[in-house]
Amino acid sequence: MKCLDDFITDDIRQRMEHRFFLRDSMSHEQRVIRYASMIFTVLSQPYDLGNKKCSLLYHAALLHDIGYEISPRKHDAHTRHIILKDSFFDFWPQPERTMLALIAGGHRKKLGPELETLTPSNQHTVKQLAAILRIADAIDYPRDERLAVCETTLLQHHLNLTIHSSVIDQVAARVAKKAALFEAVFQISVVISKA
Fold first, then answer.
1. Does 120 have pLDDT greater than 70?
2. Are strands 148-154 and 158-164 parallel, antiparallel or unpaired?
3. Are the C-beta atoms of 67 and 97 separated by less than 8 Å?
4. What is the pTM assigned to this prediction?
5. Has residue 83 been placed in a domain?
6. What is residue 159's predicted lDDT score, i.e. its pLDDT?
7. Does residue 127 lie within any of the structural domains?
8. Which residues form a coiled coil (predicted)?
9. Cα(150)–Cα(69) distance, integer angstroms
């Protein structure tokens, strides 16, 4: 697998930020990147995730809502389609582009039929990273800028996320709703604890 960072120039990054409105450092996308990175970091060694997968997750988290302007209700499918088909993304090689589209577009419900075109190893990577992205996106579901993930701990049978938030019950319910893929892929549950 290739590292997506190797294919992005400063010019491409700036054009991507401009085209998809990704400049706000306090945005939902930036918070999802932060939460996904925290989860990835604690899982990386035990699950042998590595830097190339980290880059793939970063870009999926950054781009996961780009289909929102087309349809808020089906933005996940539109995100997948944009990454797969829009010539803007031709700078990324295959199969990484397809993997990125499936992870970003799979942050809500389905991963998409293109999953079957990938090798078993790449399918597993897509499932792992989409599972992390679903949890990170669920944490930011209330769009609370004051929410803080204080600690991320991997225990024997679960991932514990210690969160400070006035809407922790809402966060815990959303994470529980989005945890099925994570639990299936990593064989551990996700537990939300109040800071």
1. yes
2. antiparallel
3. no
4. 0.95
5. yes
6. 97
7. yes
8. none
9. 32
Torsion over CA of 16, 146, 128 and 53, rounded to 10 degrees? 50
Residue 46: inside a domain: yes
Is 89 a member of any domain? yes
For the chain, how many structural domains are there in total? 1
Q: Which two tokens stand for residue 133?
A: 């992205």
* Tokens representing residue 141 in the block: 């579901």
Cβ atoms of residues 92 and 99 within 8 Å: no
Residue type, 65: D
Beta-sheet pairing, 189-194 with 158-164: parallel
**How far is CA 104 from each of CA 6, 88, 126, 147, rounded to the nearest angstrom?**
19, 16, 10, 23
Q: Which domain holds residue 109?
A: 4-143
Of the pLDDT bands very low, low, confident and very high (cuts 50, 70, 90), residue 25 is: low
As a whole number, the mean pLDDT across the chain is 93
What residue spans of the chain are helical by DSSP H?
10-19, 28-44, 50-63, 75-85, 96-105, 120-139, 168-178, 180-186
What does the pLDDT look like over 30-51, one tens digit per residue? 999 999 999 999 999 999 999 9
